[in-house]
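Memo to structure team: turn this sequence into structure tokens by end of day. - J.P.
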Amino acid sequence: MRFNPFRRKWQKFVAAFLLLISSILVIGAIILNNYLWPILSSKIKEIVVKSSDGLYKVSFGEAEFHMVQGKIVIYNITLTPDTAKYYQLKVQHIAPNNLVQLHVKRLVISQIHPFKLYFEHKLEIGMVQFYEPSLNASYELNQVKDSVTKDKRTTWQKIEKKLKSISIDRILLGDVKFRYQDYTGNKVAVRELKEMNLSAYNLLIDSATQKDSTRFLYCKNIVAEINNYQGKTPNKLYNYNINFIRLSTQQSQLNINGITLNPVNSNTFFTKSKADRFELRVDSVQVNHFNYIDYYKYRIINTPRLVVNGGSLHVYANPDKPNEGMDKTKTFPAIGLQNLHSDILIDTLQVRDFNILYSEYNKKSDKTGWVNFNKTAVLLTNVTTNKTALAKNNFCEAKVSSNFMGVGKMNASLSFNLTSQLNEFTYKGQLEAMELKAVNMATMPLGLVKINSGLLKQFNFDIKANQSGSTGQVELLYNNLEVVLLKTDTALNKFKRKPIATVFANHYFVKHNNPDVENGRPRVAHVIYTRTNDVPFFKSLWRTLFMGIKPCVGFDEKKEEEVKAINKEQIELKAERKIRREKRIQRREEKRKKKEEQNAHKVSTPTDGDAINNE
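Reply from structure team:
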């Protein structure tokens, strides 16, 4: 008996119903592909032109409408600016600072409601996915505040005659190829990213959200993520890398993880540059309540709190003599802040658990000395270049705590006058008790002095300074100071003791205690330091403090002149000894030559006996 699947009426009815539904879907898909898509694309193009005041236009390639799946696939989408319109706005001084161009190879729009669009004029979409997006952006400062245009309508007011609302639940852009051009400097700065992801959530344009300040670009939240951002500095001397960057507009928080800045090898660096060489590592940076709208529009960095968590800075002093006459005044913090050429307003900048290492090579000892500050914490307030903020408060305050050489607790406070023409600032602080042997890592290679013993009780300083110099007070309290003067043994590559000079220094120059007797009056140095333009900021601080340290340990100006006189006598004595030694050598050489000449003459002159024998 032949099998017949439609023997029963209900089977025929189901088959007919399914065939009808399939036919409707096929016919509907054909109608939507050929009729609804042109309408939809036309509306989108019109929306883009109207919402951008004619600055942008969009074009599409082929489109596929999948009725069963409820999605549209669009190919080769390009969003381009109208350059003629842009230059027209520039002439009118109302052109935007940011200009973008976007190309997407494939766009998938899912969970769409075409009938709502057609009958209710509401564009509702569940998800929009961009595949292989390429984004070019440029920034040029055309205006410093929002321009006042004749058309003050919101985006919704511009499109309300065509659409009542636009709603998209999610917008996803993965692996964006991003190229950014910045025209604010003397040269165009170009940056390229290959691992950037953008996600936007709950985009809604309607009468209720048209003036909603909690939304950015009408989205409840936009998340930007960048992985493995790396490149070279313009001078090609440093390579930088950032592991991860994340910005959330809803949280108004910017997070940056894994920042490293590494220089090229020392030979190449110091051949091409007279600057100090440094390495930087930052574990994480968090910018809270970051005003991303101000940064996006005008590159204004505005945040109530910026936190740097963990990291290290290693500074290698340039071993070559810097160019004579080179002005290092630009290394002062206030000038450095101004030279960023940015509108900066940071209420509080906090640095936690940071290690700082300074190393310097001494040609005389052929060794490198170093000073370190471990677990450094810094709290800066009112870090700003903003004119309005400076009019209210022109002082940047800093609180610093650190472990000097890993053992001595140091606390300091600094105050910078950000509007002073002379770069005025003050600094005062205290270094608590520590064994002075800990500084041998610096004093032996750099000063050829070893501290055999000594206990620092307290080191206090209070200095008022500007770019011309410093004045203030330095107090160094200590007990049982003993030093050893050194010289280098190049053959064995180590230090050797200067026995006579050491005894002379400990008995004649060095004060072993301050105060000299218990409960006595301590020696306090009143410092007057004059700075030259070739001295950078931190070196001026060190020279000022060193000028105060010397008289506290007994090496005042009078003793320094005596040492110079003794050194001069020793140099002159050595010179006289050298001259006498050279004269002795010369006399011996003359005697030797004279003797050789006499012996040669005896050999060449025949005697009487020789003459008889020859006959």
